[in-house]
Design a protein that fits this description.
globular; 2 domains; 3-isopropylmalate dehydrogenase; Isopropylmalate_DH; NAD; 14 strands; Isopropylmalate Dehydrogenase; 356 residues; magnesium; binds 3-isopropylmalic acid; metal-binding; binds manganese (II) ion
Amino acid sequence: MKKHILIVPGDGIGQEVTAVGKKVLERIAEKFNHEFTYDEALIGHVAIEATGNPLPDETLEKMRASDAVLFGAVGHPKYDNDPSAKVRPEQGLLKMRKELGLYANLRPIKLFDELLSASSIKPEILKGSDILFFRELTGDIYFGEKGRKNDGDTAYDIAEYSKYEVERIARRAFEAAMTRGKRLCSVDKANVLESSRLWREVVQAIAPEYPEVTVEHIFVDAAAMMLIKDPKRFDVVVTANLFGDILTDEASQIAGSMGMLASASVGDSTGVYEPIHGSAHDITGKGVANPLASVLSAALLLDISFGLKDESNAIIAAVDQLLKDGFRTRDIADANTPADKILNTEAAGEELLKRL
Ligand code: IPM
Ligand code: MN
C-alpha cells in the first residue's frame, strides 16, 4: 500500500514522542511491504515562533494533501498564565479540527493487564475495563460565540449544538457499539442545559434504528463518579466536546497513565492521530516522556485511516510484550520496578522496535 503521512510533532514532548511513533510506522512499512512517504509541518507554539501563526496555511494544505496525520501536542506554559495573549498555541489545534471537519474524537480506554498496579484505582475494580469514548470535537462551548461585555467585566462562552452535529457523532457511536458490547451510554446535562436536551432528543430518536444496542443516558456529574466507581459498566460512551475533554482525562487513570492513551480524530477528510496527553513542558527535553501513546496513535492510524488491521495489531502486541517483559517508562513504573527496567523515551522506542 502507498500512503503519504504528515508528521506534526507540535510542542514540548510532542517532538520526542512523535519521533518514536514515526519510527514505528517506518518499521511497519518495512515489515509488511508498504510504501509510506512522510512530510513534516509546524503547529502550536513552534509555529507561532516561526511564522506568527499557530496553524500556518502551509500546514493546513499539507494536512489536506496527506492520507493521515500523526500529531504530537500543542501548548506552552508562557501562555497559561497570560489570559490576555491574543495568539495562543491551542488556537492552531482548534482551527485544525474545524477546518478538517474532525467532528469525532475516538478515545479508547483500554488497560494493559501488566499496568493494573500503575493506577491509583484498586485492581479488582479496574480489571477488564474497556471503554471507547466518542467525544464530539467541533461544536459545543469550544466553538460557540464568546466574548466580553460590560466594559470587559463580564465574559461568556455559548454552548451550541445543531441536530445534525449530534446525529453524526451519535451514529458513529451506535455503529461502534454494534461491533463491541452493544451498550451505549450518552452523557449530557439535560437537567440543566438546553443544548443537552437537544442532544438527548437526537440520541433517543436514533436509538430505534439500532434495536440491539442498549442505550442509557447519564448526567455528566454521575458519569464522572461512576467512571471511577465501576468502570466496567461502560462500553461505548458518546458525549459533547467539553464533557468529553474532562471525562477522558479522568478515564486515563483507568489505563494507568495519560502516557498510554491514543486518540483518533476523524470526520470528513484526513484523520489526525494523537496522544491524549499534552505538551508536558515540565518534562520536555529530559527524554523521559512515555512514547507509547504516540505509538498506539500510529496503530490507530493504520487501523482506522488505512484499514491495516494486522499491522495495527502487531504494534499493540509489541507494546504488550514490552510491558510483559517488565519495561516501564517513569510514569508507569512503580515501587516494584527494578531501576534497570525503567526506560527513557528513546530506549523505550528501541525496545519496542525489537519486539516488532
Ligand atoms: C485535548 C486538549 C485540548 C482540548 C486543548 C489543548 C485545547 O486538552 O485535546 O483534549 O481541550 O481539546
Ligand atoms: Mn484534554
